[in-house]
Amino acid sequence: MLNIEIRRPTNDDIEQLKxxxxxxxxxxxxxxxxxxxxxxxxxxxxxKINYLIDDLQSSGETRYFLIAVKEExxxxxxxxxxxxELINPCTNNALKDVYEVGTVFVDPxxxxxxxxxxxxxxxxxxxxxxxxxxxxxxxxxxxxxxxWQQKYGTPDYFLxxxxxxxxxxxxxxxxxxxxxx
Length: 181
Known about the structure:
Layout: E1 5-7, H1 14-31, H2 38-58, E2 63-70, E3 73-82, H3 87-90, E4 99-106, H4 115-129, E5 134-139, H5 142-152, E6 157-159, E7 169-175, H6 176-179
Parallel strand pairs: 4-5
Antiparallel strand pairs: 1-2, 2-3, 3-4, 5-7, 6-7
Domain N-acetyltransferase: 4-177
InterPro entries: Acyl_CoA_acyltransferase, GNAT_dom
Pfam families: Acetyltransf_1
């Protein structure tokens, strides 16, 4: 197993995280076949940077990030916060009071080594320790959706062709205590 440290980000990590988001989001867009959607790609990167800044400015109260670090290199991220502006209208506000787990990114060189599972376990443990009973997770990326379906089953919300013909969006509502055992 890789020697991975899971920890909170600091201001010293901002520049490396900006580069990390750019690298991983760009890689994801190209693997999804949407690399030509430059404006959406830039919006996604900017959103993640804004979430990070919210975390650092609020000391984890608005957004709460964890990062995976190997030998001083950031190789993964995860965060939770209020359900996004995408989730609320798509669920008729059914999840407006539920935390969303997101920004589950792993450096392409380190994918399929269990880093995402370490991050997920760490964030679910944090939620459980805070007394949070449920959370949600969403994805518009086909490759990620396959992973989440294997892990969490059929999504609670399936938005057919949300991103265009054959490109769906999926949302799972999850019970935290079932995720941390």
